Amino acid sequence: MFSIVLTKEGSSHLISVVPSTWVLGNNKDTILFWPRTRKNSDLELLRRDENSVPSENWRKLKCVVKLQGIATFAEGIKLEELYSNFEDTEDEERYHKNRENKRKHPAEKSIVEDLQNYNIDFEMMDNKETKKDNDNVTMNDMNKTTMNEYNSNIYFNHASTSYNTIDDTVAIETGASKIIATNENLTTIPETESQTGETLISLRLIEFNQIITENSGLQAENKILKESNLKFQNLKEETDRGFKALQVQLDKLYDILKHKQSYIDTISTAGTSVSTNFDEEIAQRNIQFPINSIKNLELLEDQLIDTNFEKVLVKKFSRICGTSGMLKISKIGLQLTRCLFTDELLNQLTWKGIKGCTKVPFMNFIKTRNLFFKIIHLADKCCSAKDSDVFLQNSAIKHSGQRMKRNSSAMKIINPKKNKIEIEKKTSTENEDPSSNNLETIIINTPDKEIHEEEANELLRDGFRGLDDKENKIDDTPDTKNRSIKAPKTVTVLSDVKISNKTTDSKHETKMMNVSSYDLRQVFEQNEECNKITNSD
């Protein structure tokens, strides 16, 4: 909002349009804050900004507020020109005083002087309180003013702050009446109606201020709504990003499950029999898998010259590893190796060959190596021929001896005549034949499989010596890593052993018992006693 103020500088009076924020005080004691700037451009920018706020270094001037509640700076400029038509304050005061006293004559310099430009001749209305000669008003009696632009009556619209104009119409104040002059006619409006118009303007200004207040409230609500909408949009974007990320994770999980299912299907079908046609064709070539001798390996190498036979073998063994291409050679390589070669054969091979060694270099079997690579490449697309050779050298051939030892020397049920670990326990009852003896045989087990026969005998020998110079001993091979000896002459087994009953003859009964630990010296002594009994029989 803007206001029109009157200030006095020296002997002159100045009319200015300023933002309402520059004016402080009431009508009697009003102060105008004026910026200390010498550039007219800067001053003009400050005056046009209705939100500009005075600073501490501004000048403070006494002023008189002429008009308030002006909506725009452009309207204020027009009204400023209107007020500037008075040469000084006395002319304005005289003008208003003449209106109050209902004088016959206008002020010396009236605002209607410029009506002569319209070339209008009209007669004044009779006034009962004055003479008729004084009632006639001509254009020559009017003082000249700068009313060329002001050719309309200004009416304030309470719904908006703009003003409406009526073309070719000028309001003229003459004593007791207000005259409306137009190009076509001339009418008079009583002074009471003029006062009513001013009252109406004041009321409409009040209504306008109320509307401005309500509009401010609406603007605040609109701002809150915009902020809420912005927060909602941000939340929506975050939610969308979260859903997209979740979708990506679900897709990855689906792919993993798909590959796992493919692997499970491959494992489940690995043990099933392959096509009869494959077996027949392989049998016709006198080759049996897994290959267990150097002779058969050389025969396979010769037969692989036939590419059709090679394709048959690839189709046959690809059912073991699958063709998904998503598996790893480290997971399925040994499984394929067991189907193609025995550990006994691999133990007779070396990769490059060693001088003076009887082992055969596997590097020379190029066709066989290529067959292994083609099968494994269908399951692992990332595997190269070099990776396949490295696996055959470092995993299949290098550790074949250890696998052969673990797989071929599994412990069987102990026979007392072969000097195995056996415990004799004599039990007799009144109803039992005294000559019959019940033998209980203890089988020492690991979580994966039975302990090897050689290891059991070695434990017995160490137990008989007392293990005086040894500390705790741990076997860290893959399938016996849970077996340990916690103290000399004591074997600790971390898993239970299955129980089965087997009758060897009418006099002896062999049993398998659950044992967690046993004193090896006692085992050895009972074994010797058992041997004496069997020899006597």
What is this structure's SSE topology?
Elements: E1 2-9, E2 12-19, E3 23-25, E4 30-34, H1 40-48, E5 59-70, H2 73-84, H3 89-101, E6 155-156, E7 163-164, E8 169-174, E9 177-182, E10 186-190, H4 191-270, H5 276-284, H6 294-303, H7 307-321, H8 329-340, H9 343-347, E11 349-350, E12 360-361, H10 366-379, H11 385-397, H12 400-408, E13 423-424, E14 439-440, H13 453-465, E15 473-474, E16 484-487, E17 490-492, E18 501-503, E19 509-511, E20 517-519, H14 520-536
Parallel strand pairs: 11-12
Antiparallel strand pairs: 1-2, 1-5, 3-4, 4-5, 6-7, 8-9, 9-10, 13-14, 15-16, 16-17, 17-20, 18-19
Helix content estimate: 40-55%
Provide the residue-averaged pLDDT: 66
Q: Please work out how many helical segments DSSP would assign.
A: 14
* Coarse shape: rod-shaped
In the sheet with the most strands, the strands line up as 2-1-5-4-3
Domain DUF4806: 285-374
Protein name: DUF4806 domain-containing protein
InterPro entries: DUF4806
Organism: Spodoptera littoralis (Egyptian cotton leafworm)
